[in-house]
């Protein structure tokens, strides 16, 4: 069965939602297609909630029923019954009534999918990721300049305008001599971060539409999608998406891969990798990439999350409040001591504490690290999900909330992240190269009986203000925030004891 208006308006239809690398979902699709006679079976991208995938959705008109992670052996019966009797009226995990022309995944009133909102995430799990008609493309009629006043901030550490107005880079690239280029920085080797991957797997054509809109505004005729070399399934998926959307978009990006190293995801380090540099290290600024980027050309570097916000603004500019300090929404991956991670979308009025409803923790909650490996450690998630509020709380904005249980030691957690920084920094600047080593040593001395709080804080202040690289600037944050929240535990460690009973067990 085909429909020129795309998958989202097909009815009845069977959807199988899961990540592109899910072999279990491939098997569920195979069984469903074997059982189906007239009803189409569509493989969509992930919903963002790992625990319920593969998710089978049976839609007829304005009603959808959801079957989380069914056994492949049960799928045949589900599809057969659906074709003969329509949508089951009972005995389902969730039944959702919705607009028959819904373009976003209808969500139940309870459960992980009910957490937050689904604006940017809307197509994920619902739309065919390789069908342009499912994604309401707007770049052919509107470029990014039409939404520049919305004030979208760059999202994620891979964005050259992280937490700053993205449109400033667009204007600078437009004004700078040379042929502009647009880069989608999606090389994120840290498994804590899943938001960009969820978008590229579930709604790649929507991201490409945002890319085309920015390219049209800055006058770029070239665009590049930069991925991690490890993620071969996503690379193949994106190449198919680019091919599928080629006729619908004004620009066709090239897909390239970079090394599976944390520092290779920094915006200017990504440019160095793409230019074939021997060393992976960030460039000194100024100039910014918008002035001197890939091969010296004016370059706009954003993450998929930022381009998705652009595309959302093109589709529905009224959903953005230009007067808000952080217009739009933010994607947050909830991970840590949980049964399975989940990526949810929060508006700037929703507190981070809401993400706890999207996952099941293993053990009692003790603390969270907000913002990735170099995020801030806190026991209080009553902070709204906007850049000013998160920054004021000493946390990180990089779209990750790690929920850590009461088996975790804050001293050990901070120490592990300091050591990671000492190993992963590029070595280009002194604060990044030497500061991370000193920070690690000061924490190690705490275990040896000397907790030098003032020295740690002063070192952190110097590093955050003088580092050229993000690793050097952000490495003190987990340490300082952990000390602010759990300083008595640091002092107890200096006495040779760990309240969690873990740190000295081998001594």
TrEMBL record:
Record keywords: 4Fe-4S, Iron, Iron-sulfur, Metal-binding
Transmembrane intervals: none
Protein's UniProt keywords contain Metal-binding: yes
Region of interest: Disordered: 90-110
Residue span, NADH-ubiquinone oxidoreductase 51kDa subunit iron-sulphur binding domain: 415-493
Boundaries of every NADH-ubiquinone oxidoreductase 51kDa subunit FMN-binding domain copy: 147-311
InterPro entries registered for this protein in UniProt: Nuo51_FMN-bd, Nuo51_FMN-bd_sf, Nuop51_4Fe4S-bd, Nuop51_4Fe4S-bd_sf
Molecular functions (GO terms): 4 iron, 4 sulfur cluster binding; metal ion binding
Alphabetized PANTHER family for the sequence: NADH-QUINONE OXIDOREDUCTASE SUBUNIT F
Family: Belongs to the complex I 51 kDa subunit family.
The protein's name in its UniProt record: NADH dehydrogenase FAD-containing subunit
Species in which this protein is naturally found: Natrarchaeobius halalkaliphilus
